[in-house]
Amino acid sequence: MRDTRESRLLLVLLIAIAFALITVDIRGGEDSPVDGARQGAATVFGPIENGVSTAVDPVGNAIAAVRDSGDRHDRIAQLEHDNAALKAKLGSDARNNSRTKQLDKMLKTAGDGQYGIKGAQVIAIGAAQGFSWTVTIDVGANDGIKRDMTVLNGDGLVGRVTTVGPNAATVLLANDPDFTVGTRMESSDELGFASGQGDRPLRVQLLNGKAKVAKGDRMVTFGSQADRPFVPGVPVGVISRIDPSGGDLTRTVYVRPFVSFTKLDIVGVVVEAPRKDPRDEVLPPKPKPTPTPTVTVTVTPSANTPVDGQQQ
């Protein structure tokens, strides 16, 4: 249609008629005079709309699926993130449970020996400080830690503090070849000196060459003057092997440490020594020996066996 004066007048007229019909329809409500026309139009154009909708719906659904696929991907990613967080939490809970048990065991050891301790965590291990067997703990001078303090955990003697920084300290482990500690045998009170041998048992030189010792005998720290570097009564280990006595002035035994030096996590630095020597109070109860089963054999006489020395 050409843009003429007549066409513009026709457009204005149609718009006016449309507004008039809308006004009449609104004012008429349910009794609107154009309701019949609306129903007729619905009857005529309804099937056409349904056909167009049937043709267009698959395309619309495909577009919606593409649009929603991003949302599903985000939901899957969120679920994967939540699962990873849950697994990490479960792992963290297991870790925390392990540390709680270690802490409880260490506090019991400290309580039995009446040691005042400062709890710490091992944060590094290695020879960076110039020793073969050392660990770094997360407490230092700001926490009251000083050089030559005893370090223990719930199992027994861990080592001694060698260097101290403001917020960290280095501990020389009891299995280091440069480590030596005075020991005392449980019950017999035989004295000796234990030296580290790396991943092998501690080597203990007993001062009494004729000392009566046996496998399974246990020993604790003897203690040092002024309780530094070692406080008394800390469990050291169990005798696992005894060198034959050759008439020497000393006797050598080998001791399996109570502490596993490759599994250190929670430790305690003894910042206050006990008022009296705890002796053997810190040692755990001895394991009960496993009874050896005995077999009784009963012989039943056969019918052909002579009775009262008489021959058949």
Report on this model:
The chain contains 2 helices and 12 strands; from the N terminus they run ααββββββββββββ. The protein has 312 residues and is an alpha+beta fold. The strands form 2 sheets. A 6-stranded antiparallel beta barrel has the order 1-2-5-4-3-12. Strands 6-7-8-11-10-9 form a 6-stranded antiparallel beta barrel.
Number of E strands: 12
Main sheet makeup:
6 strands, antiparallel, barrel
The percentage helix is 25-40%
- Structural category is alpha+beta
From the spread of the alpha carbons, the general shape counts as elongated
Radius of gyration: 45 Å
**Could you name the ranges where pLDDT drops below 50 across 5 or more consecutive residues?**
none
H-E order: HHEEEEEEEEEEEE
* Overall pLDDT metric: 79
First CA to last CA: what distance?
Answer: 145 Å
Q: Beta-strand percentage?
A: 15-25%
The number of distinct helices, counting runs of at least 4 residues, comes to: 2
Order of strands, widest sheet: 1-2-5-4-3-12
What key attributes describe this structure?
312 residues; alpha+beta; 6-stranded antiparallel β-barrel
Structure summarized in a few sentences:
This protein is an alpha+beta fold and 312 residues long.
Helix and strand arrangement:
Blueprint: H1 5-28, H2 35-113, E1 116-125, E2 134-137, E3 150-152, E4 157-164, E5 169-173, E6 180-185, E7 191-197, E8 200-206, E9 218-221, E10 235-242, E11 251-257, E12 266-272
Antiparallel strand pairs: 1-2, 1-12, 2-5, 3-4, 3-12, 4-5, 6-7, 6-9, 7-8, 8-11, 9-10, 10-11
